[in-house]
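Q: My labmate handed me this sequence with no annotations at all. I'd like to see what the chain might look like in three dimensions before we decide whether it's worth expressing. Could you predict it?
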Amino acid sequence: MGGWLDRIKKNIRLIRQIVRNRSYCLLFYLSSIDDDFYKRYEPGAENNFERSPHPLFDSIYYRNRYLDNSYQGHPFCHYMAVGFAKGYKPGPFFDYDIYESNTDWRREHGNPLKHYLDHRKSSWPRTGIFFDIDWYQEQNPAVRKLTIDPVKNYRIHGARNGVSPTPLFDPEFYLSSIPKNPHAAADPFSHYLIYSILQDKQPNRWFDPAYYRRRYSREIGNMSPLEHYLRDGFSKEYYPAARVENVITRPRISVIVPVYNADPNFLTCCIRSVLAQQYPHWQLCLADDGSTREGLREQLDKWAALDCRIKVCYNNKNLGISAASNAAAALADGDFLGFLDNDDELTPDCLYYIAETISRESADVVYTDEDLIEGDGSRLSVFYKPGFNKVLLETHNYITHFVVVARALFARCNGFRSEFDGAQDFDLMLRISDFTDRIVHVPRILYHWRATHTSTSINHSQKSYAHEAGKKALAAYIEKNKREARVEDTGLNYYYRIKREVVAEPAVTVLVWSRDLHRDGEHFKRIREKTDYAKCEFLLLTPYAGEEKNAVEKRRAEISEGVYVEQNSYFTSKARACNTVIATCDCDYLVFLDSSVTAVENGWLRELVSQAGSQGVGIVCGRFSFSDGDGISYTVPDLDSASPEYYYSFLTSCSRHLNGLHCSQLITFSPWDVCIIARKNLVRVGGFDDENYPSLFAMTDLCLRAAQIDLKTVYTPYAVVIGEQQVLHNCMRDINGLLVEKNTFQSKWRDTLDSLDPYYNINVLGEHGITRDTFHLWYVGG
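A: Here is what I predict for the chain of 782 residues:
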């Protein structure tokens, strides 16, 4: 009963208003009111008397734009009595020309608001440039599924929940840029269109109205920059901000999308993510691979008709993802090709960062970070990738998405190969890596990989053929490069091991810096017995403990077959002891092993030797494990720690921990614990700097000096040694001395450290509340 009374009271108030404005048609006025909307709409700054009575009518907008303070009536009354005849817009989401072009309404029919109420149950026509109904429904699938009026839903629910009616407005960004305001909180976009658009405030992070107005002032006329961009600028490839225009070479990027029976909603999101790019020089090439899904062809044709940058072709039958991708690539005329799956999405700034990187780095290949999203777009996880890491790529396809390749390079590789369907992108990247080293990583999340029930992103058992295809592609790559090796499974899908054989065993000396000969002598005898490598000896180095401390005494004794002890008064530090041996021994390789090692896994030394023999490799480190696991994680640093030992451990562990301890990979710093170096390379780099780094940082310094002469450092997880407790190293625990080493290391290598470790993606720090500046200060030193 109360509801009826409220409705009568409301109508009485409106009738009084209409009489006051001498409206010519009371019944038409009342028929233009959406009673349900009027009851449910909760404005932010409006008083209840001036509530908006129609989804397309905004009382605040209308009063602010068309009425002066002398008008005391309801804005809706003014619009019905006077405003429509003068061509006044009822709200920010309505445009007469757009509504007329999308419906059978014509201006001579009279006020369009009643027409909208009468026809909206059968269709949801586009009503204005600022409300993209298709976009809104895509962001809110329930609105489409339940046949709810999108505009009405937005004004009642969506606006308050941070949903935008256009991809060019970011509610969160806008609200953070203005003082708190109840109207803005209730409807951020309406507030922007009423109060901020004329001030050229930014609607999102990447569209700069002030720049756009200056750049295209002759064409904008009376329109706002945002309106002009939506109407004309987008299709004319105008720049939304100065930084986009400032990309020097401005390559055209053709986005390649193979399509097969795609979910229509996901496909639409995929296509829209390309259309929404802030970088305008793109092309979208879609190849339908014989889809049988009803309506899919019509959907693709509709998109192709929308923008001349969209091209579509159709295969008569299903030929597979490689053939479909090649067909799409054949449509391309861009300088670069980017590969996008038909249910995934690009971020709006993706192509800008790709183009900027190509321009700045003269890159042939660019790849980005990515995240995994649910069907509704919510994030599941993030994949933070390292800089280009050839050894890691030969372990698994860590590059995945988003990858952009020079079209000429793609042609040189003859595109995708159908015999590797399921791992065609892996096969392509392996082959491309032989033609160029200008492969650049953009450490930003620019690609959204959608998890579906059939996707390998969430269900690795769904496409077992893809694992076998990857193994086959890697084997073909190894054979093409004539490597003496074979590809083996690792027990994990999509991860492989390239196992190299040691044909002729080079001579190896294993050096152990020992502070307890009694203990070390016993267990290294056992380790030597378990090491299946004939041409090796273990040499335990220890300082001379004689009475004449200044005398040069050298004692070498055999503990057991293949295990020796050498004492020398020159062995005042670990680094000096190793340098002394390097100068006198005649072995091919030197292995450095921590004295805390108590056990080894089969083949550990053979694996180190096989990797150290690879071309361009200077240092190879193995995997140090503990009886209860792999010890502390150094994926994220503890910045509260001032310990030089902790800092050293982070340097030598962070990239391995982030990129996977189970993966072979290039690294920047090797630890002392278990590593191998060819004696000739040690001599070439001048051995260890034992004067500045007597113990802990001698190895990290050596790694950087080796890199200066193009010797790489590699990690292999298949050379495993085990310690019973976590011991970072075995040197004299002179804390003050270690602090001096650390400070000296940071000072000497400041420029190198300033660039950060290329194989460690520092964006992972943000998830743990660590800022780049704070980390940089800790990492580089004050």
